[in-house]
Every structure is written in C-alpha cells, then in structure tokens.
Amino acid sequence: MFTTNPFAELSASIPPNVMQGYLILMVLLVIGGTILDMIHKKSARYFFENAKKAQASAKRSVGAGEKAGLAISTVASEVLTSSEFCNVRRRLSHLLTMYGFILFVVTTAILIFGYSAPETPAPAILPRLWHTGALMLAIGGYWFWFFIRVDVSSEGLPWYRLERADLFILSLLATATFGLIWSYLQSQGVSMASTIAFALFILSSTVLFGGVLWSKFAHMFFKPAAAFQKKVTRADGSRENLPADFDLTDPDVQKRFPDIPEYMGKNPPNMGLGIKRERPNHY
Fold first, then answer.
1. Cα(38)–Cα(274) distance, integer angstroms
2. Under 8 Å between Cβ of 189 and 5
C-alpha cells in the first residue's frame, strides 16, 4: 500500500487528463472562493484600511530591509512553527495537520501530473510521502476534533455537535481518511469497495476545496498577512492605535495611573501565578 501509486492504478478507468483537469478545477475553486470570502467579509478592505490608518499614526519609518526581516520572522514564527499557540498540544496538532496537508496536496499534484500513467512509474519515495502526509493529517485532525476543541474540552459539549465552521476540518479529515481507505482497498484488489471509497474521497475533497466560502480555508491566507502587519505596527510605533506597554513598577507610571497599586499591588510582576495556576484547557 505505502509503495503503490494509487493514481497510476486509477488511470486504467479514469484518463490522466481527467484527473489533472479535476486538480486544476479545485485550484480555481480555492482561488474563487477565497476572493468571494474576502468580498463577503470585507476582510481585505479592513486589512488595507487598518494598515493605512496605522501608517498615518506611525512614529518612525520602517525600511524595506527591516520589513523583509519582519516577513522572515513572520514566516518562521507564525507560519512554519505556529508559535502563537501557547497550548503545546494544540500547537503539535496544528503542525501535524498543516504539514500533513501540504505533503498530501503537493505529492498528489506530482503523482497525477507526472506519474499517473502506468508506463511512467513514480519513485518509491513519492507514494510513501503521499501516505505519510495523509496519516499526519488524520492524526493531527482527529486529535484536535476529539480532544482539543474548546467546546469539547472546556465547555463539555459532545464531539459530534456540528456547526458550519466545522465544514473545513470535517471535510479535511474525510479527504485524508477516505484517501487512505481507497488506497488500501485498491492495493488489496477489492474493486467494489475501493470504488465506493474513491467516490467518497472525491466527494469530500470537492467539499473541502469547493466550500472555501463557507469554511475557514481562506483564513490560512489572511492570517500570515495580519501577523506581518501586526509586527510592522510594533516596529513603526503605531501599535494599531493601542497604548504602549508600561512598566507597572515604574513610580512615574504608578503616579500617572494611581489605581495600579490599589488593584494590582505595589509590585505587579510578583502577583503570583494568576491564570497559570491551572493547566490551560483552551487554545
């Protein structure tokens, strides 16, 4: 199973150009859905208007080199390592799901566009990576769905309670699950069952990529841009029009805000563990 290219076997019943056309259609659906999502939610308009407002209140100019450094920092922190997640379990689940999804999608495209014909066998590493990506995606996704979701782990709601926002994770899990089942059944020569699993695989992937407008899929494109803009506002001093961070032990700050000692004590950093007294059970 792990060394078999399932798309090469599939080419006996579905021509490679049809498979390639389906992938291109899914890419177009993602692009179109993301654009419609930005128009509907006005997220792009908000982003640019907020950036313009922050630029007007900037206290210093951020050069191109500094912006490039902030962009690299954003990619390394918020994108590649998901450092914004304080909960270690949530972070690991997210990384497994994210890298599994990338591996799964990239190897799918390579196998279909380069090795979907039986006369051009794929290198053994590619089918292994395809199956590994699907497994990583499934492990990270099911871990999140059953054990980490806020409404399940903190609010005590049943795991099978569904909302429209769950469309993305459920279709993602279904795509990985039915893809693995289809590959296994195909390698075992169970034709009827593998055909059903393949149909469910195509259905779930179509919902995943075609349902961008109704899911959180577009969020993955907007989130890095928002994180980068936040770093820029910290660098230019505009701070998204929020007040600066104060040293609460500074006598001048306590004089300016006389209620600090009253509510937080004379030595605020040593107030105790606070919310850290208990293990976080949230994002």
1. 39
2. no
